[in-house]
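Practice record 12: protein with inosine 5'-triphosphate.
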Amino acid sequence: MAIQFVTGNEGKVREAREYLEGLEPVEQIEYDYTEVQSDSLSEIAAHGAREAFEHLGSDEPVLVDDAGLFVDALGGFPGPYSAYVEDTVGVERLWRLAETEENRRARFRTVLAYADDDGTETFSGSVAGTLVAPRGEGGFGYDPIFEYNGQTMAEMSTEEKNAISHRGRALAAFAEWYADREA
Ligand code: ITT
């Protein structure tokens, strides 16, 4: 049984595949589920996973990942609007906004929502770091401006990023729950 990861973001799929290797194969599915207007990533993700599972109509479970970058000095902006802000303002200009602030702390958050015939479960993960001028060629999205322990996430391998990232933490919680359930 494969897990259908409903996302248009290949970076998320790469990280989930690497993390869940040996547990379950991960298949990328593109389906534009409704992103409900909410400040809560878990509400957005849970609603999306349920809708996608019902729409796809297969027995195979569905995984959805809703993530965001929350900048302290900007009151948590762009938060749930991170994808829109990446597309419009861009990562470099978000850094310019933060550059003039004394407090450059930020947090990545992600919520993974899993849906199957038995219901929907959510798993969250977050990581605190510092915003810096863009560095590194790896990762995706805001990774080049997010520094953790002296390295930006774009300077890390997928494995290194998974070991400390918001998504890695959510995947760990999911994998533990999933393996227990299968046992
Ligand atoms: P899907 O909704 O299709 O899964 P998306 O990229 O639109 O893909 P989100 O709605 O969760 O994903 O948007 C999150 C935004 O935050 C988006 O701009 C991502 O590039 C960015 N993002 C998410 N996870 C990230 C990570 O691990 N590192 C850097 N940026 C990340």
